[in-house]
Amino acid sequence: MIKYLLILLPFLGFSQGNFFKYATFYTSMSMNTSMVENQNYIAVSKGYEDVTKVNPYDYNLTIGMRKIARFDYEYKAKTWYYGTEKAVSDNVTIGNSIGWEYLFNYSFIRTRGDKFTNQDFWLRYLGNKCVTKIQLKNDERRNMEFISFDTRYRLQKGNFDFTMGGMVRQHPVYHILPIQDFWVSGESTFNDLAEDFGYSTQYVQGDWHWFNNGELIATSNDEFYKHYFGQAIANYNQEQLDALGSVYELSMAIGLAYYKYHNNAWLHTWVNVMPLHYGLSDYSFEYDGAGLDLDAGIVAGLRVTKHLGLFVEGTYLNYWEKPIYECKFGFNYLIF
User: What is the pTM of this model?
Assistant: First the structure.
């Protein structure tokens, strides 16, 4: 999908001279001391060993390009754009400008020793009667990955925007747990399962030692089952799911957005629901009950007095029964 977007961009630039106008290309690198973990020890040979995890420094390398019109309640507070900022309004269906808008953001992150990448690429065209959006999102930290093509009819009424259309999504298999088919509880032991995963054991001086490809990894059953067995199951699940590939589904998409701004108060809220789905692949997601996917958000602010202001911002995304949400709220009091 990324290569298709890269191929598409030059054609869009030639076909519409203002496609790159006001866009910002950015790259940034940040580093900081990682969290210091709690002390941890294990018993060995009538003594103990310090196994406290020492995390390397955290970092975030971000590369991207964006062209998104700011709403009236937004302003550019900093000289530079780092790409790590999170603007709630970046998730809206209806932007604040007719025409092309886009975000291409790629981040390489290490936090507490765990490495992952985040990708958020989207390209949207907003017209007076339609809105079309292509998006690729891969949030490894939250295990959320999909590619979507969303096109809808748009109807404006005052401060309201109503949209209705369809969405095609491609994503990994989410609702299957391969270990449930591979291992039936009660029919085999944990040792049998571990050996099926490629681990081997040897009885040494009154305790079981565990090996992986001939390498000693644990000197007792307790150590193996505590630190390695769970990861072996997780690796097996992931390998089997990767072998199944991606699945596709077609969904009805209905949206409602409201935007009203005054100098002392503003409200921007939106909700998108996908109530009907049709699986296009053998392992497409099987919804339980209503099967309602939801994408919603809110930005609200109120200047109560010259000194006091209140705010709330939040997003909520629930695709394939995997909720992801963020919320901020509070007040500012200016002393002068």
Answer: 0.79
